[in-house]
Amino acid sequence: MSTEHCVIVGGSHAAASIAAALRQEGWEGKISIVGEEPHMPYHRPPLSKAYFCGEKNEHELLIRPESFYEKNDIDLVLGSRVVGIDREAKKLTLHDGGEIPYTKLALTTGAKVRKIPFTGHELPGVHYLRDLGDVDEIKKYVTEGASAVIVGGGYIGLETAASLRKLGMKVTVLEAMSRVLQRVTAPELSAFYTRIHTEEGVDIRTDVTLEEITGDGKVNGVRLADGTVIDCKLVVIGVGVIPETELAEQAGLVVNNGIVVNEFAQTNDPDIVAAGDCTFHHNPIYNMDIRLESVQNATDQGRIAAKTLCGNPTAYSALPWFWSDQYDLKLQIAGLSQGYDQVVVRGDTTSGRSFAAFYFKEGRLLAVDAVNSPKEFMMCKKALAAGQTADPNKVADLSIELKDLFTAP
Ligand SMILES: Cc1cc2nc3c(=O)[nH]c(=O)nc-3n(C[C@H](O)[C@H](O)[C@H](O)COP(=O)(O)OP(=O)(O)OC[C@H]3O[C@@H](n4cnc5c(N)ncnc54)[C@H](O)[C@@H]3O)c2cc1C
């Protein structure tokens, strides 16, 4: 009988991945998942999409059914925040004073929303969106025909705008930069999403600064720096996330824009691994140190962490990929476009609703954003993972078949 006990802190994508992979890898000891949220691990992406629109219920969000945890003898300690790690004694302290001993520890504490203390941000009707509870609260303020303001034109902001339009609200998106999705996509994509949202009735305002959220007992509007007032009964703020590293820092683990882990998902304590949004790690494909906010990374790095814990270390080397659903548009992103110096569009971003944008650096393919183009996404993902590139002068030529675009490294 094994005396090992792996405790996984955090109860989301990375946690579920580690727990499942531990059993697959033959871990015979005890496994516990300690999560602050009261829910079993659930898919977070539908929160701003299908769950928000009422197309999926809470049960349909579950990553694994309850029976999976029972069958695999995985203990779920939900609604419990870990407040301290004693690495010498190898035990965790919970918010209620309880203690849990461990022999191996996995940190999957994810990310938390970046909060900006705008005047009026504490008014009822002003929300951030990160977990299920947030969406349930936001939905209390959703009324057909009423107005909502979204602060932040990133993926979460735009997905929420699309969902609120589906639910019949009037929506204004406020973006401080000169275009939406500026941090993550090329100008062509920003222009495309601005066009679509405008066609769908969203009022997108860029280069604007939110001065104040107004209200009397509950939110009734926002005031911009130029004096413009927009009436609304709901404000959703989506201005990014920061890694949840408090616990790791307190425990003396190395933290730098995330918990620093090596290619085996190990922290500087050999008995502690970490995976998901909370980690800062090296990506060998791009030869870059990165922190990712994606289900792909949480799941894949989680598997790597489990292998390490089971004494079968395997280096993490996955091509990052991501998606975003807005209206009938499925954006699928293969690779990382950071540092690109050229964008070539295959298809047309100015009319229609499908195309693929290829990002290059010094003529070498870095990443592809594919909108309603699953074939392009799949082929580019495969090519990028295999280290292939494409000729930027040929990509826009639709007479050349997609499969003929890629060339060996
Ligand atoms: C609305 C929304 C839409 C998204 N859409 C997409 C998408 O379309 N595609 C995509 O790839 N990604 C998307 N993402 C990002 C994706 O959900 C995250 O990358 C993923 O959830 C990361 O998983 P994780 O397990 O690393 O961390 P998280 O999901 O952040 O989970 C961390 C968990 O740890 C818990 N926790 C933290 N500290 C403690 C502690 N001390 N004690 C106990 N528990 C603790 C937290 O409460 C949380 O439940 C979206 C995210 C949001 C919020």
Automatic annotation (TrEMBL):
The keyword Manganese does not apply. Keywords: FAD, Flavoprotein, Oxidoreductase. Residues 321-405 form the Reductase C-terminal domain. It comes from the Bacteria. InterPro entries: FAD-oxidoreductase/Apoptosis, FAD/NAD-bd_sf, FAD/NAD-binding_dom, FAD/NAD-linked_Rdtase_dimer_sf, Reductase_C. GO terms for cellular component: cytoplasm. Gene3D superfamilies: 3.30.390.30, FAD/NAD(P)-binding domain (3.50.50.60). One of its GO terms (molecular function) is oxidoreductase activity, acting on NAD(P)H. Its cofactor is FAD. Residues 5-302 form the FAD/NAD(P)-binding domain. This is NAD(P)/FAD-dependent oxidoreductase.
